[in-house]
Sequence to fold (141 residues):
Amino acid sequence: MADLRLPKPSEQLAGCVWLPRFIAKVRHHHAGTLGEDYQLAFCHPRGVDGRFLEHFALDKDDVVTAILSAKTDEELEQWFTSLPEVTQERIAAWNEFAPLIGSPGQPGERELAFMLRRTYPNEAPPVALNSAFDAILWDER
Fold:
């Protein structure tokens, strides 16, 4: 799936980082075009997707249904911001937390180390990758 293009982790919809990327991943997953490495992390509870779902108290199946049913991103934005756990405060907290996932001492540190060992089995990555967002940006550069 070399041609797979996903929004950057820091891109926002409804002022929320990761949301556009998650929406794109759901659509690719449904279409069968989400690559193997992305499938491994798709909605994994200890990956960014899973932490996103948990942070906003979202049910994976409900979110997938909403994403696949929406005709526009604006419709998705309205749906997302209408949810009880989605407040400006929760979005701000997520936007502060999400870029730290995988950083030393943060949730996801072990998972990022695992993925880096899987991606670079015989060598260290060519640059310091200190968070999941860093690793994604490097990998998709």
The chain has a mean pLDDT of 93. Helices lie at 19-31, 36-41, 48-55, 60-69, 73-82, 88-97, 109-119, 132-139.
